[in-house]
Amino acid sequence: MLSEVFWVAFVSTVSGMIIKIASMLYKSKCRECSICCIKVIRDIENEVKEDLALDVKEESKEDK
To answer: Domain coordinates of the chain in residue numbers?
Structure first.
């Protein structure tokens, strides 16, 4: 029989892994990401526009 401490540690570890995977999927710049039973479809058009605007600002600062 496994101890209660083991189960608490096991459940905490599995929960943390699931939360981290979900976080990585939502932070990625991919339109569609899937791992096992988790599938994330995102609209990244606005993020791409913001990234391009930031790149242009950084280039203009470097030119000065």
So the answer is: 4-63
